[in-house]
Specification:
Layout lengths: L1 E3 L7 H18 L11 E4 L7 E4 L15 H9 L7 H7 L1 E5 L7 E3 H11 L1 H13 L2 H9 L8 H21 L1
Antiparallel strand pairs: 1-2, 2-3, 4-5
Helix pairs in contact: 1-4, 1-5, 2-7, 3-7, 4-5, 5-7, 6-7
Length: 175
């Protein structure tokens, strides 16, 4: 198998599927680091005249669930009455690592990436929205309950759970 760069030309339908499959989960977890250096494609040349393409395993998920926020900032956002400083507002303002058309110097918000995915691949986008909508908060709570308390603070856990809830609602609303 050979790894190729993001600049390799592939069929459009494959590109769209790659984007939809890989960009929906980062929106859910608020991963703002899903840039071009965090993608890979594996080409299997077992049949050298008809190679198969697949996404490399996903990697570099460090920039998600508010990990750059201090516990003081997390606590403030969790308890504020100011809707502009809430966890939900934080999720709505989250930027992706992708730029929009027209040479705009500012990266797209995660919600704008989501809207673009819906525009180019509505069926796939709705499919993922359905999957994410079916995940209950209890599932997320159970996952975080397995993390040793010495590895994550209570504020980080509550912030992450609230982000998952807010991003799930955003995905459901947009899709």
């Amino acid at each position: 198998m050979k790894f190729v760069s993001h600049q390799t030309t592939l069929h459009l339908s494959f590109k769209i599927k790659c984007c939809v499959d890989r960009l929906r989960p980062p929106v859910l977890i608020g991963n703002t680091g899903r840039h071009h250096e965090n993608w890979g494609i594996v080409i299997d040349y077992t049949d050298r005249y008809d190679p198969s393409y697949s996404l490399a395993p996903s990697f570099d998920h460090a920039s998600c669930l508010g990990r750059n926020e201090s516990d003081i900032a997390r606590a403030r956002r969790l308890t504020t009455n100011d809707s502009r400083d809430s966890v939900e507002a934080y999720c709505l303002r989250a930027r992706s690592a992708f730029y929009g058309p027209g040479g705009n110097n500012q990266t797209l918000r995660q919600t704008e990436v989501l809207e673009e995915l819906i525009r180019v691949a509505p069926d796939a986008a709705k499919y993922w929205a359905t999957i994410f909508s079916a995940i209950s908060q209890k599932v997320y709570q159970d996952i975080f309950a397995r993390i040793e308390p010495k590895l994550i603070t209570s504020e980080a856990t509550q912030f992450a759970l609230r982000m998952l809830h807010a991003n799930s609602a955003i995905i459901k609303r947009i899709a």
